[in-house]
Specification:
The protein has helices at 2-19, 24-41, 55-84, 104-116, 142-149, 151-161, and strands spanning 93-98, 120-126, 129-134. A hairpin with a 2-residue loop joins strand 2 and strand 3 (129-134). With 162 residues, it is mainly α.
């Protein structure tokens, strides 16, 4: 039942945002469509079952967003500095990092957060290993790369997704 309710809430939220209206007819149509889609497609969806709805998880979500935005700003400044530098100081490479996350959704969110941060791009998730293209490889050591790229996000994702 939790999956159906969360799917419905997600769909109706997007419906309202896309329509930019909370008129009664928009809400009635959106509710009907959201309910129908939830009932048809969410019979086997288990995406929402891994989400924790505890006070700690909600605080962790806010902290994850703050951490992500901070990493985003720092990475953008770093890439801008490299692009504007006449010598174009790059040390690209592919590194393997390990995650402690057990949840598939948690790993997916981690991989997307890494990819959305300029200078890094998640190439593959293989169990607990992520293969990442990094514009400035500081070390080939897996533990150091994991600490540099993953650890800031991972501590919050563990609370959010287990």
């Amino acid at each position: 039942m939790k999956n159906y309710a969360l799917m419905f809430l997600t769909l109706i939220t997007f419906w309202v945002l896309l329509n930019s209206s909370v008129d009664p007819e928009v809400l009635v149509i959106g509710s009907g469509v959201s309910l129908l889609v939830s009932l048809i497609f969410c019979a086997k969806c288990d995406v929402f079952s891994e989400i924790n709805f505890t006070p700690k998880a909600i605080v962790a979500t806010v902290m994850f967003i703050v951490t992500f935005v901070s990493a985003l700003v720092r990475a953008n400044l770093s890439i801008t500095k490299r692009v504007l530098s006449p010598s174009l100081p790059l040390n690209p490479g592919i590194v393997q990092v390990k995650t402690k996350l057990k949840s598939k959704v948690g790993r997916m969110v981690l991989a997307n957060a890494i990819t959305l941060t300029p200078g890094t791009f998640t190439l593959e998730i293989d169990g607990e290993n992520l293969y990442i293209h990094w514009v400035d490889v500081k070390s080939g050591d897996q533990e150091e790369s994991t600490k540099e790229i993953v650890s800031g996000f991972e501590k919050y994702l563990e609370l959010m997704y287990g």
